[in-house]
Amino acid sequence: MPHVTLPDVFPYLLAILGLLLLWQLHDIQVRAGRIQVASAMDRSGIRWFLHVTPMDTHACVACRAANGMAFLPSVVAARKFRPSAQTCTNAAGCRCLLVGLSGAWPEAERVLAQLNAGGGRLQLSGERLEKLLAGAQGAAGGNAADKAPLNMLLGLQAESHHPQTAIDAYRMVLEQATKERDAPLLVPAYLRLADLLERTGKQADALEVTDRFLSAYGSKPGIPQPAHAPTEEQRTFMSLRKTRLMAAARR
Q1: Which residues contact 204 (CB under 8 A, 6 or more apart)?
Q2: pLDDT tens-digit series, residues 194-238
Q3: pLDDT at 138 over 80
Q4: pLDDT > 90: what percent of the chain?
Q5: Which residue in 7, 43, 64, 88 is a FRET match for 96, CA 20 to 30 A apart?
C-alpha cells in the first residue's frame, strides 16, 4: 500500500472547513426558527429599536407615518417584520433607519416598559421623541452605551430646522460608532452628512466626506467588504456626488 504524506497545513484546512460547516448549520437553524436572532441582539445590549426618518419635505406619507415607531428586538427579529404596512414612495430611495438602543435613562426605561406591556410595538409622538432625546442628554452616565445611536437620532431630528446641529451630530456618529452593534449607523451617517453639507453650500466639506466614504467602502473585486457595507446603488450615488462636487470646485 503506497505511503500518503499529508501537507502540514491539512489540519488547519480541516479546522476551517469545520467552522464553515458550523456557520452554515447555524444559518439553517436561524432560518428554521430554532435559533432566535433576538438573542444576538440581547448580547449586543440593544433592548429596543426606534424607527426614524428625516422629517423634511422629502419624507413621504409612509415614512412620516412610521417615524417614531418603537419595537422590541423579538419583533424586529421576526421573519416577516416590516416597520410599516405602507411602502415608501420616495423617488430617491427610502431614508428610514432602525436605530438600536440600550436605553438606560428614565424616559427610555418608560418606553421599554410600555413595549413589554403592549406587544412589542409603540408609536412615539414627535413631542415624546424630543423628550426622549432631551432626557438622554440630561442623564448622568445613563446613555454611555448609546452615544452613537443618540447622535444619529439627534441628526435626523435636527436636519430640517437646525442643519448645523445635524452636521455636528453626524460627525460624532462617525467618530463614536466603534462597536459592532453601531456598525449599521456608519453608512447612513456618511450619506446624510454628505447630503446635508452639499445642500447647505459646504461643497468642500461634502467632497471630503464623500472621499472618505469611497475610500472606506470602495468596491474592489476580490476584496471582502466590511459588515454593513453600502449597496452598489449607494456607492454609485456617492461616486456621482464626487463627480458633481469636483466639477463645481473647478468652476
Answers
A1: 249
A2: 999 999 999 999 999 999 999 998 766 556 666 688 988 899 999
A3: no
A4: 58
A5: 43
pTM for the full model? 0.79
Q: Hunting for cell 454593513 — which residue is that? A: 228
Query: Could you read off the pLDDT of 94-111 as tens digits, one per residue?
Result: 889 999 999 999 999 999
For the chain, the residue count is 251
